[in-house]
Give the backbone structure.
Amino acid sequence: MHAEREILFRESAAAALLDPQLRANFRRAMDGLISKRQAQFPDPRDLQELRDLSTAIRSRSLLRLPELLEQLEASCTKNGIQVHWAETCEQANELILGLLRARGAKTLVKGKSMVSEEMHLNAFLEANGVEAIESDLGEYIIQLDGETPSHIIMPAIHKNKDQIARQFSQKIKDAQYTEDVDELTAMARKVLRQKFLEADAGLSGVNFAVAETGTLCLVENEGNGRMSTHVPPLHIAVMGLEKVVADLESVAPLYAILTRSATGQAVSTYFNLITGPRGTDEKDGPQEVHLVILDNGRSRIYADPELRATLRCIRCGACMNHCPVYTRVGGHAYEAVYPGPIGKILTPQMEGVGVRHDLVHGSSLCGACGEVCPVEIPIPEILVRLRREATHSDPNSQVAGKGTGRLASEDWTWRLWAAVLKRPTLYRLATWFATRLGGALPVGAPLLREWTRTRTQPVPARRSLSERMRAEGGSHD
Amino acid sequence: MTATFEAFQTRAAAVSAEVHRFATRHEGLAFIECFLREVGVSEAPGSGALWVDGSFLEGIGSAHVTSQVPGVSFEVTREAAAVAKVGISQLDWAIAGTGTLVQDATAVEKRLVSTLPPIHLAVLGTERILADFNSVLQRLQPEQINYIAFITGPSRTADIERVLTIGVHGPERLIVVVVDDFEKVTA
């Protein structure tokens, strides 16, 4: 039963904890985000009301998911948006490459999209001769260093401005060294402006897709999303299949709670509702709009009534900002596209609960994530469920990699434990030995090492309770 | 109306937009012309202003503007927008509660002038300021509009150390000119 297990998180988290710069960068940023969010919700009753409403909207959308997706496809098609379905990331990548090749596109400018990170689209396109340029400032910064996002909303938050200043002066042509944030931003603006104007195609994510009207909603602050969607002649939008909602009325509360939870803004600078490509009489704007809808394990998550709540997520990042683990180790330690609490439940379900067993255990189950989640995803409960799934093979379970996280040594330990507890003589013998000799057990004994790594090894009492009661009197009543 | 306007102005100013109110379109236009001269709009390369014509200039005429401020053009293309200093467009609605401007931006020209130039100047009728997001949604038929833009303040980012920076990809200044007698024309 001993599955191949890469215990990455514990090791990378331990390494991250030793990096004072990284810890300081995260601490500062997360404290800021927490207080900005708090300022947006001065009245806890209003917050709860909005959370209840948002949770209801997301749950209801998921309840009707297959139907809404069909409706979305029909509405989009009617509007002139071409819809494509991809079961796997490989399929989605091939699809996008095909769309780009059909138009002879060599450069793709990208607005922020976590789904495209999930697909590792940039690497795939580079390997196939298409240049993919990230245009969100944070994404641009990490792309320069070949890194992945350390936060889903603020991808470069692990770096401070000195680090970015050094990086820009080395990697941007003719760049002067400066630590002034305005000047650094202006540098990136200049480089990316040129890319926008030259790009053959633009790619964006989707925050909400409206089934009734076939509208793609895009939330952003920088304006790069707007540019990616209307400066190049071809616009490709990618979304996970859970992003669909029934109607526009559903969007208003979700948008309101998304920006407040994510960055503590009442609204984002830009909110774009895209319902179609340019008209026949227009001379500019995208001639084609394509929507790629990705499954990548989502329909398997959907099939489980408890785990389905994972798909309510609107990707605000509040769970990360409030997580005592994430705020100390940062996003990269998770070695997953989606870090933090939501990543801990999403990644194992997508990649297999056995191979990412370490992630579901990388939590103190303090409950902060579940408390701040705008759509009330019971993250701690799902973590516990996944811990069980990792070591049990319930025939009714659809969880990827169920049971593959079982350790033979742990298994034998519990069997032995059960065998002892079932036999009174054996139990008495064991307690007699434990009370007499337990104190002599060396710290970090082989079977206990895993458990005592982060806990103090208990020392048995010198006499068991039964023995003391017999000796000192007293009754069992 | 004044209370709604003031709410809008307060919210918009909080996100770094500059809001000005005038009784008539003529007064508004006088301000705009003065503003354009002030920021150095001229016929020199890279100093132009691009105006997406709307009902604001009805009865005034675009020729009047170009005669007053050379450098203003009404021929909007992607290339022109990419080098313009100021983009001017008419907005359809505004939301008092959040200081947001709303536009049927199906015509890509409207998107280009509010995205590419470093300054976006928006004109709007005072009557068009509504209370909230839903009031605007009720007046739009989103399924019939290819692109609806909600704009709240100039372009911003906080991606470096969470330091707020204005003007990353879109405009670094957003000027809103609100005019009271607009509806007489647009209605």
Residues 1-5 of chain A have pLDDT under 50 and may be disordered. The first strand of chain A starts at residue 81 and ends at 86. Strands of chain A lie at 81-86, 107-110, 131-134, 201-204, 208-210, 215-220, 234-240, 244-245, 270-274, 288-294. Chain A has three domains: 1-40+305-406, 41-296, 413-472.
